[in-house]
Amino acid sequence: MAVRAERWRSKGDERMSLGAHLVELKKRLFISAIAILVTAIAGFIFADFFISALRAPITNIAESTGRGAALNYDAVTQAFDIRVQIAFTVAIVAASPIWLYQVWAFLVPGLVRKEKQYAVGFLATAIPLFLAGCAAGWYVMPNIITLMLGFAGDQDLSNLNAKYYYDFIVKLLLAVGIAFVVPVFVVLLNLVGVLSAEAILKGWRIAILTITVFTAIATPAADVISMFLLAIPMIVLYFIAALIAWLHDRRAAKRAAKVEAELGADV
């Protein structure tokens, strides 16, 4: 007897067979791929703009110190590879509303109502916070590069490998972007019952110390303003997460007390 895999839809009793499920997956992947490909082509065309923006800190160092500082392409195909990397990085970010919606539309029918609420809340807060974090990383990036290259002597040249330099900047932006999203994960852990508001609040000293160390590393010691501009929103986000967790725990405690009272009355 053949066993047919089925998936419940969100409306009524409509169900989706395994074949229809795979067709829908193919459709969602195709739309996402087209969106990324189109934006990648645009990113490749305008790659010079992004390369100029990435090169700006090095150019400033060369002008301010009077020593050589430039991007170095040490392979025949490296310049082209960098443009392709930039194109697809821009595509992933620019097309994110489209491919994230496709992921959401594919998963929604298989989620219960509460899971849908958590997913909507997570996406609605995590995406803007991640982009804000990337923007903050972009703001402090020139200072970090200036600080790191400042350890080289005045007589030394700073001819940086272009691929390594690009990878360094992408990792920096991702690190700061993810750091801005951490409070959302903290709230999510609280909503699913893994982490209590009390535990979050008890760890506020460690959280502030961690944020301070992170921002101190990410910004030059002489640029205190940049450090505070990066640290303050991260600390505020942490305490907002703690407040949301506290409100959730308080509501859950009231609900549990009400259920216990009703059960006691029935007995």
Summarize the helices and strands and which ones pair or pack.
Layout: E1 6-8, E2 15-17, H1 18-45, H2 47-65, E3 69-72, H3 78-94, H4 96-107, H5 113-149, E4 158-161, H6 162-191, H7 197-202, H8 204-218, H9 224-266
Parallel strand pairs: 3-4
Antiparallel strand pairs: 1-2
Helix pairs in contact: 1-3, 1-4, 2-5, 5-6, 6-9, 8-9
Question: Can you give a write-up of this model?
Answer:
The protein is 78% helix and 5% strand. It has 267 residues and is mainly α. The protein has a two-stranded antiparallel ribbon. Strands 3-4 form a two-stranded parallel ribbon. The longest helix has 43 residues, at 224-266.
- Sheet having the most strands: 2 strands, antiparallel
Q: List unreliable stretches of 5+ residues.
A: 1-13
Strand count:
4
> What's the order of the H and E elements?
EEHHEHHHEHHHH
**What amount of the residues lies in strands?**
5-15%
What is the gist of this entry?
It is built from 9 helices and 4 strands. The protein is mostly helical.
Descriptors:
two-stranded antiparallel ribbon, transport, 267 residues, TatC, membrane, mainly alpha, proton motive force dependent protein transmembrane transporter activity, two-stranded parallel ribbon, disordered N terminus, single chain, translocation
